[in-house]
User: Fold Copper chaperone PCu(A)C from Nocardiopsis metallicus.
Amino acid sequence: MTMRTRTANPFAPRLPLAAALALALLATSCASEPEAPEPVAAAVERGSAQSEELLIEDAWMPEPANPEVGVVYLAVTNTAATADAVTGVRTSASPDADLCNTETTDSGAGMMRVVDEIPVPAGGTTTFVDGGYHVMVNDIPEPLEVGDTVTVTLTFASGSEADVEVPVQEMTGPAPDHSGHDDHDAHH
Ligand SMILES: [Cu+2]
Assistant:
């Protein structure tokens, strides 16, 4: 499979070549422990997992602005010859998690909607991003901070299931519009 190209590690490790290569594969700016049992395909400091023909990468949760509501972003690649779909989600962060999509209305506003499934085409990648598909975590009982890790389990139409360790990280870029999330529970 083709791996996404990542920017080179800006911190050239002063280590023997083999270790340097291992670090380069991990490609993280603060992987101080080369022996860390990260999968080679792991994204920079982000969560990844593989389940049968499904690869999950780049999983992270921006530190929630509203401590009770979080979102998880990731990318799912389906290497199978048949289409699949994410059909369920649960997480250690809260008993209440949903698959969700942000749809843009005619007026240009983002509207959140809980969805039953998120398609992952055969040989394709579906990316969960701000303004698109995401995992919505509601009613978080214990506030999460940068450095915390939560487990997110995705279930698929094919019957596959994948556990991903998802780091809570500082928000990068513009903050997602969480204004619609308060209405989220109304849809339940
Ligand atoms: Cu949402």
Observations:
- The first helix runs from residue 17 to 26.
- The chain has one helix and eleven strands.
